[in-house]
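User: Could you go from structure to sequence for me? I need the amino acid at each position, not a summary. Structure tokens:
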């Protein structure tokens, strides 16, 4: 019986550990530069963001455009200091950023609680971005993330978060587009994107976990009763 309780306790700890959220994005911090994500915008190899529909991964937006504000990434000093800087496109539903590879889902299981979050900052005061979230190639209705505009908000990092439960296909891709199509302004930076998922244990797993914790408690109580006080 003791061995059974011990095995159940180990299984319970394993289930509890597996339920903890894990980071699922490859390069959401942009520490690895222009890699680990996809974009339909043109990468500015020469650090030139004057054309619309272009992006760069850099430490200072002003190095890409003389009218962009100069500021640091969302976590200065904590990493490489890189961020994704974007000159918004006038083409609708053009992918700014996306992660997810065919055949390798970000979240493979259905019914998984997930949270997607990211930080955005305007680099030019006029016509701030209005970002849309797509999951598995489908735009989520009513989910819009509006960046702050105005001179006083340049370089001010905003955090946006969306939580949900994965469907039957899990999550194969997660994507950001921009519904603001204005050519004037519409310039911004992204940093510290994150996708975390926690699989919900099956009922049988919950039962095993409860049995394991109950057995662990019984073992501890039994060990206490067996202890004999030392002689004075």
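Assistant: Here is the amino acid at each position, in order:
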């Amino acid at each position: 019986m003791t061995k059974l309780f011990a095995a159940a306790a180990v299984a319970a700890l394993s289930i509890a550990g597996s339920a903890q959220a894990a980071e699922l994005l490859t390069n959401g911090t942009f520490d690895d530069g222009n890699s680990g994500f996809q974009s339909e915008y043109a990468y500015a190899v020469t650090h030139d963001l004057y054309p619309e529909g272009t992006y760069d991964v850099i430490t200072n937006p002003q190095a890409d455009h003389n009218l962009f504000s100069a500021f640091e990434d969302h976590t200065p000093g904590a990493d490489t200091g890189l961020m994704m800087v974007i000159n918004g496109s006038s083409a609708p539903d053009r992918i700014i950023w996306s992660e997810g590879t065919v055949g390798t889902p970000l979240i493979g299981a259905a019914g998984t609680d997930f949270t997607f979050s990211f930080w955005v900052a305007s680099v030019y005061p006029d016509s701030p971005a209005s970002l849309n979230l797509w999951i598995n190639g489908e735009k989520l209705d009513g989910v819009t993330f509006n960046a702050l505009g105005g001179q006083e908000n340049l370089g001010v990092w905003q955090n946006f978060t969306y939580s949900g439960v994965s469907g039957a296909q899990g999550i194969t891709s997660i994507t950001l587009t921009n519904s603001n199509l204005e050519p004037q302004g519409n310039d911004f930076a992204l940093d510290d994107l994150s996708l975390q998922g926690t699989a919900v244990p099956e009922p049988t797993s919950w039962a095993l976990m409860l049995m394991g914790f109950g057995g662990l408690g019984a073992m501890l109580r039994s060990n206490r009763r067996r202890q004999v006080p030392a002689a004075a």
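One structural detail worth keeping in mind: The first strand starts at residue 22 and ends at 23.
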